[in-house]
Amino acid sequence: MMAALTAIFLFNMKRILLFMAAGFCTLQVSAQEHLLQFKSVTELQQFMQWTPARVPLLSCHRGGPVPGFPENAIETFANSIKFHPSIIECDATLTKDSALVMMHDDRLDRTSNGTGIIREKTTAELKSVLLKDDNGSVTAFHIPTLDEVLQWGRNKVLFTLDVKRSVPYKMMVDAVRRNKAEAYIIMITYNANQAAEVHKLDPDLMISASVRSVADLERLNAMGVPNDRIVAFTGTSAPDKAVYDYLHSKGIWCIQGTMGNLDNSAKANGEQVYTNLIDNGADILSSDRSMEAGRTLNQYATDKKLKTKHLVIKK
C-alpha cells in the first residue's frame, strides 16, 4: 500500500513540475479570456487592411500545445486565449466516412493513444481515441471535428485553417459556410493556384498566401486574387524589410513563421527576438512558443499603446 501511494505521489509531482516549468502552476492560471470578435465578414476584411496602428497578433501553431494540452484540441485553444488574443492555426484532414477532423499527421500514433491511418478510421472510431500532449502524456481530450471547432471559435478567435493533402478546398469552404464562420476564418494556401481556387469558391474569404517577393504578389493578382483578401505568409526566415514595406503599401498584413530557427533563437537569446521581428515589419507571428511569444506581444502592444475594438478581455 505504501509503495503504491509513493508511486502516485511521485507521478503527480512530476506532472506538477512539468506544469511549473511551462508557467502553468495553479498560482499562475489566468481567469481571463482574450477574445477576438467580429460581427461580420466585412468587419474582418476591414480589420485585415493594414495600417501602422495595427495590433500585432500571435498565431498559435497547431493551437498552442503546452504540457497537459495537446495540439489541435479545443481545450488547448481555450487554454491559449486565457493568456493572449490568439489566431489559432489548426489542421483538418479527412476520415474514412468523409468527415473533417482536426489532426496534423496522417497517422494517429504520435499525437494519440490510437494507432493507424486517419483515413482508414471512421469519425466514431476516432472519437474513442485520447490525445497526447507534446511530452507523450495521454490527456482526457478527444479529436474534435472541424464543425465542433468552428462552432466553439465564434466570437473567441480567428482561425487560420490548414488543409492536409487530398482534402478538397470545397469541403473546407462548405464547412465554413455551414457554420457561418466566414467572419473569423483565414484559409491557408500554399501556391497561387490554390489561392485562386479558394477565392473563386468564396470571394469573401480571407486567404493566407505564400508571398516572399513582389513577383509572388503580382502572380496572385494576375490570377484574380485581390490584395484586400490576402494575408501574406512570408516564410520562416525574416525577409528583407523592403518586402514588408511593399506589402504594407498594398494594405496587406504579413505573417512571419517563427517555428523552428526563430523560436529557437528567442529561447536562446531572449524574447526581444519577437519584438525585433515586429519592428522589422511582421504583423502576425506564427509560433510554437505561444506562451512566451504571446506574453511578449501583449507587452509590446501595451508599451506602444496599440488597441483594437475587436479585442475584448473577459474576466
Strand order of the largest sheet: 2-3-5-6-7-8-9-10
- Shape label: globular
- Strand % is 15-25%
Number of strands: 11
- Using the 3D structure, state the CATH architecture: Alpha-Beta Barrel
CATH topology: TIM Barrel
Report the end-to-end length measured between terminal Cα atoms.
Answer: 44 Å
Low-confidence stretches: 1-28
**N to C succession of SSEs:** HEHEHEEHHEHEHEHEHEHHEHE
* Assembly state (oligomeric): single chain
Count of domain modules: 1
Average pLDDT, all residues: 92
Helices, by number, come to 12
Summarize the main sheet. Answer: 8 strands, parallel, barrel
Describe it.
By secondary structure, the chain is an alpha/beta fold. The chain has a single domain, classed as Alpha-Beta Barrel (TIM Barrel), CATH 3.20.20.190. Helix content is 37%, strand content 16%. The protein is built from twelve helices and eleven strands. The chain has helices spanning 2-21, 41-47, 74-80, 123-127, 146-153, 169-178, 192-201, 214-222, 241-249, 261-269, 272-280, 290-304; strands at residues 33-36, 57-60, 86-94, 100-102, 158-163, 185-188, 206-210, 230-233, 254-257, 284-287, 311-314. The strands form two sheets. The chain has an eight-stranded parallel barrel with strand order 2-3-5-6-7-8-9-10, surrounded by six helices. The chain has a two-stranded antiparallel ribbon with strand order 1-11. The radius of gyration is 20 Å and the shape is globular.
